[in-house]
Amino acid sequence: MVHTFRILVANQPKLMRELLVEMLAEESWIEIVGEVAQEAEIRESVQKTTPDLLVVTADKPGKRPAICDELLREYPALHIIAVAPHENYTVCYWASLDIHAADIESSEQGFLSAVKSVAETVSKSGEIN
User: Fold this and answer.
1) Dihedral sign computed on CA atoms, order 5, 70, 85, 12
2) Contact 71, 81 (CB under 8 A)
3) Residue 21 falls within a domain, yes or no?
4) Sign of dihedral through CA atoms 25, 83, 55, 127?
5) Based on the structure, what is the number of domains in the chain?
6) In a domain, 27, yes or no
7) Is residue 97 situated within a structural domain?
8) What DSSP character marks residue 53?
9) Which of 48, 54, 84, 110 is deepest in the core (most CB within 10 A)?
10) SS3 (DSSP) at 60
11) Residue 98 is part of which domain span?
12) 5 near 119, Cβ under 8 Å?
């Protein structure tokens, strides 16, 4: 990776948030710019930390959280991974004019591969925040 990839982990159950942060922090190319426990705090944290990637909770598998649409309109360069912890289901939302999703393998390696994929996309497109 050419640059440090900035990640904000938000709105996850505490244990899951801690595990994700611990796993991501082991990667030298990742900088955890913050953790947010409440959805109401996400927008302000995105504004303050300007992450490349936001990890949020998906309430229902296959359904994009409303906060995604709101944030992507305000921050079009933001990439989002939504995780539904109670179903072992992970979805990656790509920020673009045509928002789309792709399923991610529900494992540590699957999640890390998705983060790497987003980081590579950001690096190639020059969308560094």
Assistant:
1) positive
2) no
3) yes
4) positive
5) 1
6) yes
7) yes
8) E
9) 54
10) coil
11) 5-124
12) yes
Structure tokens at 74: 């305000």
Instruction: Give this prediction's pTM.
Output: 0.81
Six-digit token string for 19: 């595990």
Helix (H, G, I), strand (E, B) or coil at 3: coil
Would residue 129 count as lying in a domain? no
Under 8 Å CB-to-CB from 50, ≥6 apart: which residues? Answer: 6, 33, 129
State the amino acid at position 110 in one-letter form: G
> Would you tell me how many other CB atoms lie within 10 Å of the CB of residue 60?
11
Look at strands 53-57 and 79-84 and give their pairing: parallel
Task: Kindly indicate the confidence band of residue 103, based on its pLDDT and cuts at 50, 70 and 90.
Answer: low
Element (H, E) at 34: strand 30-36
* Extended strands (E) in the chain: 5-10, 30-36, 53-57, 79-84, 89-94, 100-104
**What tokens does 109 get?**
């390696």
- Angle at Cα 120 formed by Cα 114 and Cα 123, nearest 5°? 140
Q: State the pLDDT at residue 21.
A: 92
What is the CATH classification number for the domain harbouring 108?
A: 3.40.50.2300
